[in-house]
Known about the structure:
single chain; 338 residues; mainly beta; 4-stranded antiparallel β-sheet; 28 strands
Amino acid sequence: MPVFVRRSVVAACGLLTAFSTFAAEPGAVTSVPSASANANTVVVLNSRDATITLLDQATYKEIGTFPVGKEPHHLMPTPDNKSLIVAAATGDSLLFLDPKSGQIQSQVKDIVDPYQIGFSPNQKWFIANGLRLDRIDIYGYDGKNLKLAKRLPLPAMPSHMAFTADSGLAFISLQGSDELAAVDLATQQVKWTMPVGKQPAGVYMTPDNKYLLVGVMGSDYVAVIDWRTQKIIKKIKTGDGAHNFRPQGDNRHLFVSNRVAGTINVLDLNTLESVGSIAVPGGPDCMEVTADGKTMWVTQRWLKRVSVVDLTTGKVIKTIPVGRSPHGIYFNNRASEL
């Protein structure tokens, strides 16, 4: 998900204060290599190494690498852009970074299995997907404090999430049972589940709130779902291992990474068709796009590196070594999530 997506994963202001009211006291955090507080720092999560690598976006040089909680997979900024939240799944913790420099602000422990996290668009609800525990934790949020409302068991491996625009429903992909679940946030109950294909992963709500797009990682397509009728209305052919999404920022084009094929498809949100493909080998996963929409950075899970793609030519222009199994990626001067 990856990354902060409007209507899909929405963070909230005041998160540090909110978490400190119910979690354990922040533990000691490791010092971070010095980085200038500008928009050029790229944050890369190395999930197998339990580290974060900071890169200089302008020079492609490594600023430094430092340890974090085990299996950092996903990250998201708060709406005020004052913090970047890193979720360490088996480390049972959240780390807060300065989104410009990557410097550590705080650490919160005892958040159990936060594989994917997100706030509903109205910021009333916070969800932590526990992929290894087969559950989601739903918290109520009053603008200052978080209170556990429901610990909801789900079929195997709840993974990515998206929300309806009115924050009524949360949609959770279930990699282990090949389903999509709709959770009613008012009642904290499962409203329905439906099969969507083998190992569903990324979930994206179209900007018009009409369709859900689900990357079917065990196959080679994106399922287009009318979530009101629980029907798959279309399958967009991609490459093998359709996994995660990132909008280009032009309110029209959406990228989907295909881990097995080593490609990234470009989807047209108006026509719901694939209109292009970019070769990025080695398990492309999470993507980040520069504010001008011209360059995309992609983590390559199987090659321990990040690739930089020129979106004008559709070619990789630079590869940068990082840690093992790089997953989430973020930089501050980023394109809109539309």
